[in-house]
Specification:
Among the domains are: 7-79; 89-196; 199-249 and 409-474, no CATH class; 527-668, no CATH class. The chain is 51% helix and 17% strand. It contains 21 helices and 23 strands. Strands 1, 2, 3, 4, 5, 6, 7, 8 and 9 form a 9-stranded mixed beta sheet that branches. Strand 21 (631-634), helix 20 and strand 22 (656-658) form a beta-alpha-beta unit. Helix 12 runs parallel beside helix 16 (477-495). The radius of gyration is 28 Å and the shape is globular.
């Protein structure tokens, strides 16, 4: 089956394993030369077994070749981003997208081309994340515009809190490793290119379509919602709008995905109903072309590319009268995306999109046929509910791991809101097509405005229902893998009779429970000190087993603490830091939490760890230390670090750790 029906599953797994291994190892050229030579020798040896029924040497050679290929592709991608020094440098490059307006600045993605050195211009790969201070001097920048700028690159860093979203890793996978601050004086030259890249033109078309919506009377929050649902432009949304959609469990309609591509392809295909019979090939070609145009305009997101590639594969197979396996087409589209950008497998959108689609292809039909309705409307509702339930089952482990929450009303909200959003997508596509016909485009815009407002209102109601989401639940990566396997096998066992024995899903369930048990046992038998890297506040955690004592200057503690406790199933006990000195003994270690430090306090406390808190921590200039603490940790909200630096050396700490610069602090106790 794997060889004939779904070959891309067999070749995709070792390729992905090779990419994942790139997270742990970064081999040099010699390793790949030796590996390539060894694999060639394996292939030569495999020729000796060609006359036998099976050739295990050839199979092993293929698996090794794909594994090394994945590792090589990921290594090339990572090393392809140039290393920049933290000093003022002149760069040439171009705009990758429109500037995104923030509260006090504009956020600009700048694709670097070269940098100026003493020897001349040197090629630079990667992009810079620029923050331009708001002023009237900012020129009107559009994608593809050429710039020469002066800036000091700073390396993007994650906050490093336990089980938190790794922002640095995410940005690096998108080709951005550095950021910088600029103002009008740092833009040395600005010019308009003679020819723009296709991707830049697509972004300009997207902006023009948003202007069309605006010119036809759609404004404010509804314009932001239309732009998000139809074009994937979420920069205009308010944070409150996003929260409503997240809590209602329909945030996926704002991320242009395969759902939008399916809606659009079905609409176009039916609009071309008159092209039948021998003209059907023209119908298919027009649909594929429009779908690819849509994919370019929406920024070539992995989910849209997946749907577009899959649709293209399926339709080409039908034209050639060679039926294509749906799952193999999905995996083939993933294989293409991975070859182009290996790190795409770490994107949350990629993982969620493919998990949902694979589950739908595997189980939707069997699940839908369990209940039969004679009338069309109940049947349509059941179809929507069945797709929602299956897709949610496929993405459940990832949703819990990535977002620490689960929407409880997802079935009802998806049936109603996804249906409305489908109409929004269709009408959003019709307005640009009918824009020259004023009365028609205005009428369509009014209908679109009404449906968008209704969508927003219903989403707000769904998000405020009792227990709309289960918050603060979490699992580790290993638990996520085993839970995904468990749900998949149990779903297959329940829906497809005699597909596999009961022992198989039970074994997967045992592995899931075992991984959770090992996590709990490991947690209960250990203690640690954590100084969280929170924004503008202090949060110090002392964990004894599954009890997490939090000392914070704000109650309740921040999201960093909630995510940590949810993932490890910790019981949190919160204590308010009110400026007083706190001395704690845990795991045989003495911990001192204070905003002021002097000789007397050091002598009486004799701490192993010192945590300096407050915005203006003070160290006595004449401090003398007879002890040598393991670490002096300066909490992230300290704004007068330069005052602390002068007296740090007198404390004789083995390590001085600045949480804001170096990330959250961990130490076993």
């Amino acid at each position: 089956m794997l060889n004939k029906e779904i070959p891309f599953l067999r070749i995709g797994i070792p390729l992905c394993l090779g990419i994942i291994s790139g997270l742990c190892i970064a081999p040099g050229s010699l390793f790949f030369i030796l590996s390539g030579t060894s694999i060639l020798l394996f292939f030569c040896v495999s020729l000796l077994f060609n006359r036998q029924l099976t050739n295990p040497v050839y199979g092993i050679s293929i698996m090794l070749a794909l594994f090394i290929c994945g590792l090589l592709l990921y290594t090339i991608e990572k090393t392809g981003i140039s290393v920049l020094e933290q000093k003022e440098t002149i760069f040439t490059g171009c705009m990758s997208d429109y500037p995104e307006e923030k509260e006090n600045s504009f956020r600009i993605i700048f694709k670097t081309g070269s940098r100026f050195t003493r020897e001349g211009y040197e090629k630079v790969n990667g992009s810079l994340l620029l923050y331009y201070r708001k002023s009237k001097d900012l020129p009107v920048l559009i994608p593809g515009d050429q710039l020469i700028i002066r800036c000091t690159p700073l390396e993007i860093k994650s906050r490093g809190n336990p089980y938190e979203f790794d922002y640095r890793f995410f940005m690096e996978n998108n080709g951005i490793r550095y950021y910088a601050f600029i103002d009008s004086g740092d833009i040395i030259r600005y010019s308009v290119p003679e020819h723009r890249k296709l991707i830049h033109r697509a972004l300009m078309i997207r902006e023009r379509i948003i202007d069309m919506f605006r010119e036809r009377g759609i404004k404010g929050e509804r314009l932001a919602l239309v732009a998000a649902i139809t074009l994937g432009q979420k920069n205009m949304l308010d944070p409150e709008q996003k929260q409503h959609f997240i809590k209602a469990g329909v945030m996926h309609i704002m991320a242009v995905s395969g759902l939008h591509a399916v809606i659009l392809s079905m609409f176009i295909f039916r609009m071309l109903f008159f092209l039948k019979g021998r003209f059907n090939i023209i119908r298919v070609i027009i649909t594929i072309i429009i779908l690819w145009i849509f994919a370019f305009i929406t920024g070539l997101t992995p989910s849209v590319l997946r749907a577009t590639l899959m649709y293209s594969f399926l339709q080409v197979g039908n034209i050639m009268k060679r039926p294509v396996n749906g799952i193999n087409s999905v995996l083939a589209s993933a294989f293409v995306l991975i070859l182009v950008r290996p790190s795409v497998i770490f994107d949350a959108g990629f993982q969620l999109s493919y998990a949902a689609v694979i589950y739908i292809l595997c189980f939707y039909r069997d699940f839908y046929l369990k209940i039969h309705f004679r009338h069309r409307i109940p049947d349509y509702i059941w179809q929507s509910a069945a797709i929602t339930i299956i897709a949610q089952a496929g993405t459940l482990p990832l949703t819990i791991m990535l977002f620490n929450r689960f929407p409880t009303w997802f079935i009802f909200s998806n049936i109603i809101i996804v249906t409305l959003s489908s109409l929004v997508v269709i009408f959003g596509a019709l307005i640009p097509l009918t824009f020259p016909v004023l009365f028609l485009s205005k009428f369509l815009a009014k209908v679109l405005d009404f449906m968008t407002g209704l969508t927003e209102r219903l989403t707000e109601i769904a998000s405020t229902l009792p227990v709309s989401t289960i918050e603060n639940i979490g699992i580790t990566g290993i638990e996520c893998i085993f839970l995904t396997l468990t749900i998949f096998l149990f779903t297959r066992f329940l829906l497809i009779k005699k597909s596999l024995p009961l022992q198989v899903p039970l074994a997967a369930l045992f592995l899931f429970v075992l991984s959770g048990t090992i996590k709990d046992i490991t947690t209960r038998k250990s203690s640690e000190l954590i100084v969280y890297n929170s924004i503008g506040s202090s949060a110090i955690g002392i964990r004894n087993g599954n009890i997490l004592n939090i000392y914070s200057d704000t109650l309740p503690a921040g999201q960093e603490v909630r995510r940590h406790s949810a993932t490890l199933n910790l019981k949190v006990r919160e204590n308010l830091l009110d400026g007083n000195t706190i001395q704690i003994k845990a795991g045989g270690k003495k911990i001192l939490i204070t905003s002021t430090l002097n000789t007397w306090l050091l002598k009486t406390a004799s701490p192993d760890f010192i945590v300096l808190t407050g915005k203006k921590p003070v160290i006595d200039r004449n401090i003398q230390s007879e002890v040598s603490p393991e670490a002096l940790i300066i909490s992230p909200e300290a704004i007068s670090i330069y005052q602390v630096n002068r007296a740090v050396s007198k404390i004789n700490a083995r390590k001085v750790y600045y949480v804001e610069k170096q990330g959250a602090f961990y130490s076993r106790l």
